[in-house]
Amino acid sequence: MLSEILESRAGKVKVWSAGCACGEEAYSFKIVWEGLKKSYDNLPKLEVLATDINPAYLERARAGVYSAGSLKEVKKELISKYFHWQRSKNQYAIKTALAKDVAFKIHYLLLDPPGSNFDVIFLRNNVLTYYEDRLRKNALGNVMESLAPSGLLVIGSHETLPYERHDLVRVAPHPFVFRKRDL
Ligand SMILES: C[S@@+](CC[C@H](N)C(=O)[O-])C[C@H]1O[C@@H](n2cnc3c(N)ncnc32)[C@H](O)[C@@H]1O
Predict the structure, then answer these.
(1) CB-ligand 1 contact for 127 (6 Å cutoff)
(2) Model confidence, pTM
(3) Ligand 1 mean position, distance from CA 18 (Å)
(4) What was the pLDDT predicted at 33?
(5) Domains annotated on the chain, with CATH
(6) Using an 8 Å Cβ cutoff, are 95 and 60 in contact?
């Protein structure tokens, strides 16, 4: 799924985690990206922008600290590679290198997008689940403006789009991943 993006973007890949909570999605993507370095010689530079409406979440996201429980689904070797244990605080903190090129910013999803030409946008488990139809449509419209041609939109696995968009094509076999048509 990412391979087309990698092959078509020479210089830089831009990712937006929209409604990022405490940064889990943003750092998870960065970990996946670091893993790709084994298979690709010339990976483009990655820039991740993660936004949320809640400043307290963003503060925690920037600090990059997580309880052991919240990392229980992360493989042990990834934990030791990308986090260090802060015994006095009983928490894991991400290593500085993982936070490189990951930026956090306050943003309300019903306003203009916080950037443009994103190659991948994660819009999972927030407005599409919790908002009424009119607002879901507005939010999706705003987000789509900032998705690059042939970029990927990822929604939650239990979510659906509020309306059919002729500019989005489902990426099989994932019912929650869409590619923006290059019109
Ligand atoms: C359940 S969390 C989902 C986090 C992440 N996207 C994931 O799937 O793991 C929902 C997040 O969306 C944020 N959120 C809800 N409404 C929002 C809005 N209108 N604009 C920006 N963020 C919003 C909340 O503050 C919360 O951090």
Answers:
(1) yes
(2) 0.96
(3) 7
(4) 95
(5) 2-62+100-180 (3.40.50.150)
(6) no
